[in-house]
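Quick one: structure for this chain?
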Amino acid sequence: MKKILLLAVVAVAATTTSCRKDLTCTCTYDQTDATTTNGVTTTQASSGKTTAAYTSIKKKNVNLYENCENRTEVYNYKGGSGNFAYTTVETTVYTCELK
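Got it. Here's what it folds into:
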């Protein structure tokens, strides 16, 4: 009986602690802004890197705190009027890795 109880305690302790880790999400991104005014399009590009560190967290719960997945985000902006009207399309591509 003592062996069964001891094994049960060890099993519960192992399952509750072994899944928690210190994890870091690293994302690199490439962003392109294309602005069109009077039929002329200008483009600006930028890139960078973001990181988020998590202490003692389950890997399945990281997405609750940070969007740590490969994705593409596209935003459209319009403004001005007449000869000053413009349209901007901002596209950002994220490549992320969780370690």
